[in-house]
Amino acid sequence: MKKSILLLIAFIFVFSFISVGIFASGGQEKTSDDGPVKLVVSSRLYSQPGEQQFLIDEIFPDFEAENNCVVMFEILEDEPLLKRAKFQKESERINTDVVIAHAGMMSDWIDNDYVMPLPVEQWTDRTFSKAFRGSTTKDGKTYFAPVGGDVYLMLANKKALPYLPEGADINNITWEEYIDWAVNIASGEGEGKCAVTGVPQKSLIYMYGGMFLSYGGEFPVINSPGAMEAWSLLAKMKDAYTPTVNTYENVSSPMKSGEAWLTVAHMVRCGEVYKSNPSGYVLAPAPKGPEGIGSIAGASGFAVVNGAPNEELAIKFVKYMTDPEVAVTIARGTGGFIPPIDEAIEKLGDSTEDEIIAQGINVLKNGVVAGVPSSEYTSWGAVKQVYDDAFQELILKKGAIDKTYLDEAQARIDALKK
Amino acid sequence: MDNPTGVLSREQKKKIIPYLLIAPVVIYYILFWLLPVVRAISGSFMSAPADEGGVFTFGNYTALFKDPVFYQALFNTAFIVLISVTLEFVLAFGLALLINMKFHGSGMFLFLALIPMSLPAVAVGAMWTSGLSTYGWLNSFLIRIGILNAADKIIFLGGGHFAKMFLIIIVDAWQVIPSVMVILLSGMQALQPEMMEAGYVFGGSRFKVLRKITIPLLKPTITTAMILRIIAAIQIWLIIVMLFGYNRLPVLLEQIVLNVDKYTGSEAFFRKGMALSVVVSLIVSCVSFLYLKVSGAFDEPAGKGV
Amino acid sequence: MGSIRRGVFRSVRKTTLYIVVAGIAMALIFPMFFLFTFSLMSDYESYSEWPKPLLPRIKVEFRLTPIESVDGSYKMEIWNNSEKGFTPFGPEENTRANKSLRKLSNFIRNYSNCFISEKELSEIMDSVDQNGAETFILKKKVFNNYTRFFTLYSGAAQSVLNSLATAAMTVFLSLSIGGLAGYAFARYIFKGKNVLKLSVLFVRMFPPVAIALPMVIILGKIGLYDKPVGLSLIYSVNQVSLSIWITASVFMGIPESLEEASQVFGASKIGAFFRITLPLAVPGLAACAMYSFIYSWNEVINALILTQFNPTFPVVVYRSLLGANAQVHLIAAGSVAQALPAIIFTLFIRKYILQMWGGVKV
Fold this sequence. Notes:
B: 0% strand
């Protein structure tokens, strides 16, 4: 008898929650009909809580007051963002107005007609940096307005400094010296201390691609003469990487814990580590090759969703956010990204306190920089995988360069071309 | 209902009742599940969506079967399933028997044993990546209690192919043993203690009673626990990706996710993923069917479990 | 003599039992203990010591020393347990300028979970000027990672309600329609039974990743976007099939003769079911409820797509952790916070899985 009473209580409990669930959602819907217009912005960028707070406190209010609207800002990773776009399009319930997507995913957004072209030619007061055209445009139309540019920097734990090869200058280091440095550390410490993002589908392609650029290669060709020269240097790194380098999703964890001491990585990752202990690390531009400092420049971009409920307002919003003046304010208030707008970079100039942005602008201005040509390939993820496989096979397994392997790899990349 | 001229006789009613009981499930599945599955299956035989000029093709399957990674994934999955299901079943059964002894504090112990299965993926990922990394807590613990010297840390994640698989099996077992155990335990609870008592009265040893009485009585539950576990084990992928990333220890499900979610934008990869889904579901159903056949679940007389 | 020997034997057996139990419990708790420990640590503790500490610190020792070469500037140091000494902490140079003080105070808050105001810092600098160097101890805010999480995300409370509603509906759906079908499979012989039972299982066999999005799109078309009901309908797909199999096996274990016997004494068929069979099946039903609850509580992949302004709790945790790259202490706090309700639920439901009062006597 006792049990059946308990069961009864449990069922009442369940039912009450069911009704809560139905009413909770019902209540929310009612409020959405009145009041100012809601502009829904879904973003992969500004995921740090402080960054969101800054946007909501300092950037959105002006726009909201001017247009009598409320900006609803939410963050998601690229993948669910894209899936949700598909979901909203196919179920014909589009309620997102603006998205911020990564350069590597932009072709997916454009090819599937999830986003619409932007009237950038009317925005004469700004010039979007050239490096990103490859991913933001298609057939002469601009779909994405770039934001949050990034390049690759070098970060070293101060414990690694005694191993620095003689005559090398950290702020002006060459790839040969960098690799000797990594090898020195490994032989001195008895274990490799260099890190890259060794897990597939991450940023290894950009780390190596940047190096190939500095040897005169082009991105993402894997077997160009420049790239071959770079590969033959990299082959020495077999034991200079940490033993578990192929499980690193990002370099910041191992760099922070002291598992790794040396890396060339995305400036935001470098920034995370550097800021956690400024007196323990040295931050410097990426090493250079014969052609100078090479780096892949990534960016995210604003786009207006095709069929957005508030299309005009959404375009206004993108225009507002990429205004050089606003872009400078955002760059100062949020951490670690370069505004990919020429006028904004000029305004930011040398006045920036943030060492990471300053280093990044330096690379962007003076280096050999290439964007992410994801729109030229059917699947950018598969192109990444070719680099990940080559890294595993040639560097970690063999420690020697195999021309035929790389030629085959390039054939795989070519096969993915549109 | 008790109208003698009612449309249905008592016999007919009895025949219809089971169908009525099952009907809600069938309707629910037809509404939400069947269409996507039919689409996925038919999609795996097309070169592109039909309205974009796709034609019927086996190309997706031939591409799949030509891919050496598929065979690696097949082997790895088979290996992991074989070992982990056996291991997990034995340990879970032991654990269930232990808890079923209802010793003082067994309720608390059950609660502890249930916690791993209630952890979300993010917790499991954080726990093991921070634990198994070379500078993680597992090595720290071993050094702090003096088992290891600080110099010779164990490189857990740097092992070879089979070391990786055993690591996955252990980590996976830690989380799923409770879920197997719960099914077995709930089955044991429904058994009448008199049956076992009778066994002891007639002089059976503990082991003999277990083998001759408990296990046969538990058979439906064991079958269920095993079949659910086998199906889930074949579909293992998330923990592998969290520890090693994609494509480093390929398994079947991880390859589907890779093709469908990671190689986005390409019709060929997407359809290869669909083809792989169909192949995986065929493999799972064959294995389950074989298991059910061998264990004799099909000849179970209804309601005569005792 | 014999009884003493038996007594000794029994107590030895009992001790062994408890040693085994304790050993297993340790193995189970061990990884979770570290996860919890991490969640109480600061950034500095969780990364800058090797070997890592096994327990979180409660107090942190700092030292402020003047930099000889530059007048009026100071160096902050923190005690490092593994190096048994002070190590540099924070900006390389700190001065009395307001900006520098604020930077230092923020740094101490963000990376050591200790709180010290700018004024206090400048007072310490004063005494450094007099005494050369100053060592001071601050109390660490042990639960800072958790409070940070809930103060930053104001929608967290509402999302917990959404999650609970979703979970309750999933449990209800899978127990009700799953239980009915399970009973049918256990008690009746009918045409197509084996085929049906296998096809129910097939629902779990088809890889969910391949059909998740199309399934969600169907829901979107019906208009169940951003609602707990919609989510629970998706979550139940897997859970119903599980419930059918578990309940069927449990009902099969309960002799039909018990029901028949009570019918002899005048109970109706339905009455017999509720009075005899259902109580015996409670452990199995409880297990099903637990599976459904846990699955629904933890699911995030579909929830990310299907919710926007009414997110479930895991979605809120997911979003908050997107920015917590390489901050394992925050990730640990988020995942412990997410796991806690599910753990409490298992604490509640375990009573029904393990019926301490034994089987129902007939």
